[in-house]
Amino acid sequence: MGAFRDEKTQLQRSSGMSFALRWKHENLRFIMITACLSVLSISALLLLLYGTSARYVTLVVNGQEKKVYTRQWVMERFLEEQGIAVGAQDRLSASPDSKLANAERVTIDHTVSVQLTADGETKKMYTTGKTVERALQDLNVTLGNLDKVTPDLNASVSENTAIKVVRVHKTINEVAEPIQYQVETKYDPNVAAGKEQTIQEGKKGVLLKNKITLFEDGALVTETIEDTSVSAESVKKIVVVGTQKPVSALSASADASRQVSKNGVTFPVKQIMKNITLTAYTAGVASTGKSSGDAEYGVTFTGRHVTEGRTIAVDPNIIPLGWWVYIEGIGFRRAEDTGSAIKGQKIDVYYESESYAKRFGVKRGVTVYVIGPQKPSLE
């Protein structure tokens, strides 16, 4: 038996293949055009993505600013690209692993180490300051008006520069101190010799002082006194000392009843003293060591003011203070003053004129009549 082919089936298969080939032939151009368009689209997309990955960054390193073009997305890679090393103590505006945005401003400040001594501590610190002043400001070290800084504030700072701040503190305290009173002694010929009497008690004054104390880092450095003022004046103590002596002390042969007449005046004398030496003095510096502005200028040992024609200086052991005498060639005078050079048979006569006192010179062999506490009258 022979085999029979199915002509219908073969016809159908042939027709299908022909359709596929015909479809492929007819649509090949479309397929190629579509493929080309797809490739172009992908390429354009990649180009677009590549273009958008580029960014401009403002880079500021230690104050120096510039614009930088980069395709890096991460801060750390951007710094590597720019060849910038950032130490652990350097100051970066963002963390190394942060994303880098377009138009971002990246700030980098490199620091140097300094040895800072302040407030009792020494520390190693890191600063961006280029001078000592800037470094202290950067490290938040506040200076007082009197604080001392070494080196100078304008000095440059480099690695391991030693900076020392000494805290200076000043105090001003008002201190009261006593003013000692003076003792004034007045000699009174009407009071018995050797007797003393206080007629005015002394009182201390008060002197106010501003005591200025300086401390450096808590240690006392200096103490000074400024702006003194008197809060209360002192009051001097006044003591009266008697100088009255018995008549017998002048001379064993003293005769109170002896009468002497001089220049029309008759008066009793207690003693006649011969061979007395006379000199002259004034109230000025040359004679007393005092100037016209001094408080005791012109004041005698007995407290009286010197008066020409009345005052003489004597040795109280020879002529009692307060007694009157008559000096040959001079006239009546009163013993009111003393002097370190007036000892024994010497009398210093007061004159207002310094030139006259110099011309007076020294007169020897003069007779002096000692009268007593009362001055003779013309009656």
Automatic annotation (TrEMBL):
The keyword Cytoplasm does not apply. The chain crosses the membrane at residues 30-50. Residues 165-245 form the G5 domain. SUPFAM superfamilies: Barwin-like endoglucanases. Keywords: Membrane, Signal, Transmembrane, Transmembrane helix. This is Ubiquitin-like domain-containing protein. It comes from Paenibacillus chondroitinus.
